[in-house]
């Protein structure tokens, strides 16, 4: 905060332009509020009274992406999907969960997750058979949305943690299954996503399994509704829910800067530049929160290639020309 405060002493303009909007032919001048929560599911561990083998179940290859980007599209959450897979296997074979791990960043939809578990050595062959059935069923069911999904299983060395008991697993699964994920409310008029919820990460400790949830909303009412649902899920699962970060919704005090961009775009392209409200581009609303500035976010549409994201030179050139004209208009 001290470093941010120093900005007020050196900033030379009241106009800020973000270049990180992952959409083209539009600008954002209103940014959603964001709340980050930590949910801790307390787990009880036990010493198995049977001879067991430890396995790792891995889920990967989901599309993922930034939690504020393309929230209107169906993007499966690897942590939530993993719990569904484990539920199906546990319905046929007795397994005991040791750890759950998924996601890496608070602002991304998790693309991969893994569960380490133990199984009685007498049931290993049955486990493998059931796994193949469940794997094929899940891949076929979700092929339309996640064509690159991969599910695998392998033996691993015993973990340092003991397995959690059945009640602890039920608490964990209940919380994950009850919370909303993805788009929560969409404006039916312009199909603009108003609010969304993302289960971002899961980490296993000795006595807790910790999960990070990120709520974004352009509407105070919708934010309250989402908070009510995750609070209820936390209560039902005997968890501890703590708010760790709160970023207020940002809206420019006037449309002066928006008009400059729209006029400049009309001169260049001969068509309207659409202003939008976005779930993305929150960085500047944090940094400039207490400063009297106006913020616009622009960008280009990225396409996914082989392990990289790219955009066309034409789109980049269009943005550069637009910025040049905006700067000339402002000056």
Topology:
Blueprint lengths: L1 H4 L1 H4 L4 E4 L7 E6 L1 E10 L9 E9 L17 H13 L4 E8 L10 E8 L3 H18 L8 E6 L10 H13 L3 E5 L6 E12 L3 E10 L2 H17 L2 E9 L2 E2 L4 H14 L4 E5 L4 H5 L6 E4 L5 E2 L4 E2 L2 H18 L1
Tell me what you see in this structure:
- With about 325 residues, the protein is α+β, with helices and mostly antiparallel strands.
- The chain contains nine helices and 16 strands.
- The chain has helices spanning about 1-5, 5-10, 80-90, 125-140, 165-180, 220-235, 255-270, 285, 315-330, and strands at about 15-20, 25-30, 35-40, 50-60, 95-100, 115-120, 150-155, 180-185, 195-205, 210-215, 240-245, 250, 275-280, 295, 305, 310.
- It has a five-stranded antiparallel β-sheet. Strands 5-6-4-7 form a four-stranded antiparallel β-sheet, covered by helices on one side. Strands 12-2-13 form a three-stranded mixed β-sheet.
- A hairpin with a 4-residue loop joins strand 15 (about 305) and strand 16 (about 310).
- Helix 5 (about 165-180) runs antiparallel to helix 6.
- The longest helix is centred in the middle third of the chain and has 18 residues, at about 125-140.
- The radius of gyration is 23 Å and the shape is elongated.
- The mean pLDDT is about 85.
């Amino acid at each position: 905060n001290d470093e941010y405060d120093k900005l007020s002493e050196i900033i030379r303009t009241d106009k800020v332009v973000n270049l990180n909007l992952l959409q083209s032919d539009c600008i954002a001048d209103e940014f959603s509020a964001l709340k980050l929560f930590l949910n801790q599911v307390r787990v009880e561990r036990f010493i198995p009274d049977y001879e067991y083998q430890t396995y790792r179940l891995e889920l990967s290859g989901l599309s993922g992406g930034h939690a504020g980007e393309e929230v209107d599209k169906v993007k499966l959450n690897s942590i939530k999907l993993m719990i569904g897979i484990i539920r199906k296997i546990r319905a046929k074979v007795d397994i005991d969960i040791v750890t759950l791990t998924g996601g890496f960043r608070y602002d991304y939809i998790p693309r991969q997750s893994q569960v380490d578990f133990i199984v009685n050595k007498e049931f290993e062959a049955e486990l493998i058979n059931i796994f193949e059935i469940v794997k094929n069923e899940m891949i076929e069911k979700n092929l339309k949305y996640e064509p690159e999904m991969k599910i695998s299983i392998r033996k691993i060395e015993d973990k340092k943690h003991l397995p959690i008991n059945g009640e602890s697993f039920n608490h964990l699964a209940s919380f994950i299954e009850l919370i909303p994920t993805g788009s929560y409310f969409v404006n039916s008029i312009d199909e603009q996503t108003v609010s969304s919820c993302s289960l971002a990460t899961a980490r296993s400790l000795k006595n807790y399994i910790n999960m990070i949830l990120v709520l974004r909303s352009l509407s105070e009412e919708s934010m309250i509704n989402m908070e009510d649902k995750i609070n209820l899920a936390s209560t039902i699962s005997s968890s501890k829910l703590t708010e760790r970060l709160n970023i207020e919704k940002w809206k420019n005090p006037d449309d002066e800067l928006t008009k400059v961009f729209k006029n400049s775009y009309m001169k260049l392209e001969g068509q309207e530049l659409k202003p939008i409200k976005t779930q993305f581009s929150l960085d500047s609303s944090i940094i400039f929160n207490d400063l009297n500035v106006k913020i616009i976010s622009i960008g280009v549409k990225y396409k996914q290639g082989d392990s990289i994201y790219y955009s066309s030179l034409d789109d980049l050139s269009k943005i550069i020309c637009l910025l040049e004209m905006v700067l000339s208009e402002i000056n």
